[in-house]
Structure formats: structure tokens, C-alpha cells
Amino acid sequence: MKKLIEIEDTVLTKLKVLSAFEGLSVKALMEKAVELFVKSKEKEQLDRLTQEQKEDIGLLLLMQQTNRTDTVPEETFLKALQ
Fold this sequence. Notes:
By secondary structure, the chain is an all-alpha fold. The protein has four helices and no strands. Helix 1 (9-22) packs across helix 2 (26-48).
């Protein structure tokens, strides 16, 4: 997805200098910076969760990875619960 954003000239100049030192394009440097920021915010949010909330998220992630076309008969499911 292509988006245009406005950046102050001083920030753009700093980005250009940093990108030269890093050996990256300005676009790649900005993508890397945004990715690091998002990961940092995600970690902050996860750190604030209770243990039960963390378990719920883990279960949700596992459920999203399952094959939804794979089914078992009701009998098998009920036997597994006992």
C-alpha cells in the first residue's frame, strides 16, 4: 500500500543522513523505525496484561492457526472431555 506522508524538512534531512550511515534507503529506514515502534508498543501492551489475559490471547492465536475444515465426530469430542 502506498501512502504519502508529510515530513518536516529537518526530520527528512536527519533521515537521509541516518540512511546513508545505515546503508539503507530512506523508505527502508522509515519502515524499520515504524516496525520497531510497533513491536515496542505491542510489548508494552503485553506486559500490562494479566496472566489470564495472556493465556486467552495465546489460545486465540492457536485457534487461528488450526485447520477449520478438519472436524471430529461429536462422540470423539465428548469422550475427550471426560
